[in-house]
Design brief:
Layout lengths: L3 H29 L18 E2 L2 E6 L2 E7 L4 H5 L6 E5 L7 H9 L6 E8 L2 E8 L1 E2 L9 H31 L4 H27 L7 H31 L7 H25 L1 E2 L2 E2 L4 H22 L5 H20 L10 H12 L3 H12 L4 H36 L3 H31 L1 H15 L7 H15 L5 E6 L7 E6 L8 H13 L4 E2 L11 H9 L2 E8 L4 E8 L10 H30 L4 H10 L3 H17 L1 H20 L5 E3 H19 L3 E7 L7 E3 L2 H12 L8 E9 L6 E7 L14 E2 L7 H14 L5 E6 L3 E8 L5
Helix pairs in contact: 1-7, 1-8, 4-5, 4-10, 4-11, 5-6, 6-7, 6-8, 8-9, 12-13, 14-15, 14-18, 14-20, 15-18, 18-19, 18-20, 19-24, 20-21, 21-22, 22-23
């Protein structure tokens, strides 16, 4: 019985045979005739072999008339203009434009020929040095030339966008590298042809034998390689993804490669030696166009039948129909070309050349959702806008400056150079401001997700049990990424056997605890994120585990890691919005979030153990504080590092060093209840260095320490907790610049040390109506302040050592007195 796979293989074989037909015709022509079949109505009349004058000569009212003279061509440079009528060429009279083109194409580039023209009632005599006619470029009219320029510019934009998207995916997942190669090969043709068009537009056609001519031919060669290679790779990708090569690789793979291989060899040979018998590279135009149309069309059709590819059913249908129309027109089965003029034929050929843009564009739109959408869109928009503004500013500015330069006699080159430097400086600053604004515009939804997670992480240390932590954490994460359902499994802090489960919109089918226990050993030993869409996976899951996750509706599995071990896992269903998928932004967001949840679980486990060892002693409070790595601070620090890596790697490295030093200090203090003030201030300075990198110029810091107080012992983490509280609940809550000052000095004799921390933040609303400083336990105390207050009270037996003063317009002043000795 003929199944869909076998039917798809037959379609591919039929496409290969069809694509080989024009090659068979070319071989037949080579064998039978040593010239060009001008009476073959089903073939394109290129007329571009040999040399040319870049003038479109047409028969008008019985006379050979210049209907279009390319502005940068040799004919225009010699003096030929639109509307000139040819009287004699090379001292001979011609009566048919085709005869003139054939005579011209038989010459070699670099030769000169005389023209006798009539312009109105006058005779004009010029001499034109003929140049090589560029392969597959069509300056038949200014409109067609501009269409080619803008068409290939648009195609280059979509290819660049595709490369930006596929690049990070390829680094993340080796399986996505083929997609990157696919777009890169197509880019050879698009960017190569655009480079040739721009070169001719700016510098004119190359003279034979020059360096410019060699570079032009090299660009042509690479471009044609891309044109032939892209349809082949596209069909191979679809065939491989559909499993059509499985068990049939021996005969199907050589069959697919045969036609493009012959075309590639033919192209390289004709480009190097000029022709193979009567066949030049221009005579390969029809075979290449027809082959590309057949392969692109059959790839779309197979993707439609096999439900593979990232362009969807609508995209497959559009591509298949466009390719079929192009193939029928090019080969003459639908007699479009024979009925069109030579100029109209050029329009159709250029359109067919741009056919490769369609699958790349559709593929780009399909894979866009897997990449960093917000970043790519915002950067592409900003780069395009800034480059456009620079272009118009330069053209407009030089238009204004030209008359002034002519009157003053100043050097145009020097003025242009200074003007370009000025524009780059100005627009570099503008570009940075635009990037911030546009990023916030494109990433509004992503920003809301980050804000929701950040708010949760701000109060993650307030959770005293793992059950409430798991329930709210998965609810925040599932809502932030738009998941239809989600479930979180956490190892219980009290033992290593039982599991704590938190659910978000549970709906069948979903991952049960029994299913989780089956897949858990793999994720515990190899804690890598798994996604339903394979573009995001760094490694493949075993087939049984992957099928189990898919059967239970999982779209994403994120391991929850603590300090060097895996402590649980979050499993998300597919997204609520139809057609939405998880992408790299989601993975980075959830990876950081899962890390904070894992650290919070470790904190609960550590606090639980320490409570059992040292019930309500001051040492237990110290251990709890030391175990409490503030997730909000860590989350902000990681985001700061990410934002600095690209633009200011030196500052990013400094932030990493300070962050590691903070953790090292936390570990080295061990169970010490006291540390010297100089060590505590060193910790605070590292913390403030990180906050300074995050806030930038908005934060001003001053710190003064009396040398006599540097060695005085102070409860560990006391100053750091107060400074962190001033940043988090004071300066961070207001817009505009903020000031933070730290003063440590010895007070009156036998009064110990006075630590004063002043900030210009939002203030403490509970204290606005108090006339003086307040001390003792307060309602606004969070976990950190409560810990510091209780430790100081138990260590020194006093509740008046920590005091607060706050005003609406002046911020908050915190004073901590360290007595000279313990009671």
């Amino acid at each position: 019985m003929l199944n869909i796979r076998n039917f798809s293989r037959l379609l591919i074989l039929a496409a290969v045979l069809a694509a080989a037909w024009p090659l068979a015709e070319a071989v037949r022509d080579w064998v039978e005739v040593s010239g060009y079949h001008e009476d073959a109505n089903t073939r394109l009349v290129t007329g571009t072999r040999g040399a040319g004058d870049w003038v479109v000569w047409d028969d008008v009212d019985g006379a050979i008339t210049a209907s279009h003279v390319f502005p940068k061509g040799p004919g225009y440079a010699a003096g030929i203009r639109d509307g000139d009528v040819l009287f004699l060429w090379d001292n001979q009279q011609y009566f048919d434009a085709l005869d003139l083109k054939n005579a011209m194409s038989g010459l070699s580039p670099g030769v000169s020929r005389p023209y006798l023209l009539t312009r109105g009632t006058e005779f004009v005599e010029v001499s034109v040095e003929l140049t090589r006619h560029p392969t597959f470029l069509y300056p038949r009219s200014m409109a067609l030339w501009q269409f080619s320029l803008w068409g290939f510019t648009l195609g280059a934009f979509f290819h660049a966008l595709g490369l930006f998207i596929a690049g990070p995916l390829a680094r993340h997942n080796p399986a996505a590298r083929f997609e990157l190669i696919l777009i890169a090969v197509s880019s050879l043709w698009i960017f190569g042809n655009l480079a040739r068009l721009l070169a001719v537009q700016v510098f004119g056609p190359p003279d034979a034998g020059t360096v410019y001519d060699v570079a032009f031919q090299v660009t042509t060669t690479f471009g044609l390689i891309g044109w032939v290679g892209f349809p082949l790779l596209l069909l191979l990708r679809v065939s491989s993804a559909s499993g059509l090569l499985d068990g049939h690789r021996v005969w199907l793979l050589p069959a697919i490669v045969l036609v493009p291989g012959v075309l590639a060899v033919g192209m390289l040979v004709t480009l190097l030696i000029g022709s193979i018998g009567p066949v030049s590279v221009e005579d390969l135009l029809v075979p290449i166009l027809f082959y590309a149309s057949c392969y692109i069309g059959i790839a779309a059709l197979v993707a439609l039948l096999q439900s593979t590819g990232d362009w969807g059913r609508a995209g497959s249908v559009v591509i298949a129909l466009m390719a079929a129309a192009a193939a029928l027109a090019v080969q003459g089965i639908v007699p479009v070309l024979s009925a069109l003029s030579e100029q109209a034929t050029g329009w159709l050929i250029v359109s067919a050349q741009l056919l490769a843009v369609v699958p790349v564009t559709v593929y780009t739109l399909g894979t866009l959702r897997y990449g960093k959408v917000d970043e790519i869109l915002s950067r592409a928009f900003v780069y395009t806008l800034v480059l456009g503004l620079i272009f118009f500013a330069f053209v407009g500015g030089m238009t204004v400056l030209d008359p002034m330069l002519e009157r003053s006699g100043a050097s145009r080159i020097v003025v242009e150079g200074l003007y370009v430097v000025l524009l780059l400086v100005l627009f570099e600053r503008l570009g940075r401001r635009l990037q911030i604004f546009v990023s916030s515009f494109f990433s509004a939804e992503r920003h809301r997700a980050r804000v929701a997670m950040s708010r949760f992480l701000e109060r993650i240390t307030d959770f005293l049990d793992a059950e409430s932590l798991a329930t709210e954490a998965i609810s925040v994460a599932g809502s932030a990424v738009g998941a239809r359902s989600a479930i979180l499994f956490l190892r219980a802090p009290s033992d290593d056997v039982s599991w704590i489960v938190g659910q978000f919109h549970p709906e069948p089918p979903y991952v049960t605890e029994q299913v989780f226990r089956t897949i858990w050993p793999h994720f515990r030993d190899q804690p890598a994120i798994w996604a339903r869409n394979p573009e995001l996976n760094k490694r493949q899951l075993p087939g049984s585990i992957r099928r189990l996750l898919l059967d239970h509706g999982a779209g994403l599995a994120v391991p929850v890691q603590g300090d060097g071990h895996t402590t649980g896992m979050m499993v998300f269903g597919v997204k609520t919005r139809r057609g939405s998928v998880y992408n790299l932004d989601d993975l980075e967001l959830l990876r950081t979030f899962a890390l904070q949840v894992g650290l919070a679980v470790d904190r609960l486990q550590l606090v639980e153990r320490e409570k059992q060892l040292a019930a309500e002693t001051s040492e237990a409070h110290l251990v709890a504080l030391r175990a409490q790595i503030n997730p909000h601070f860590l989350f902000n620090s990681l985001n700061t590092i990410i934002s600095l890596i690209g633009e200011r790697p030196g500052e990013a490295e400094a932030v990493v060093e300070n962050l590691s030093a903070i953790f090292r200090y936390t570990l080295q203090t061990g169970s010490k209840a006291f540390v010297p003030i100089r060590d505590e201030i060193a910790l605070v300075e590292r913390y403030l260095h990180i906050e300074k990198a995050r806030f930038g110029e908005r934060l001003t810091i001053s710190c003064e320490v009396d040398p006599e107080a540097a060695e005085v012992p102070i409860p560990a983490f006391a100053i750091q907790t107060l400074v962190e509280n001033a940043i988090k609940h004071g300066i961070e809550k207001v817009r505009g610049p903020g000031r933070l000052s730290i003063s440590v000095c010895t007070s009156e004799p036998d009064q110990g040390v006075l630590v004063e921390i002043t900030d210009s933040g939002a203030g403490i609303q509970n204290l606005f109506d108090r006339s003086g400083p307040v001390s003792g336990r307060q309602d606004f105390f969070g976990t950190g302040l409560m810990n510091v207050s209780e430790r100081i009270g138990k260590l020194y037996g006093r509740d008046d050592l920590l005091s607060f003063t706050s005003r609406p317009d002046s911020g908050t002043v915190v004073q901590l007195i360290i007595p000279p000795s313990l009671p």
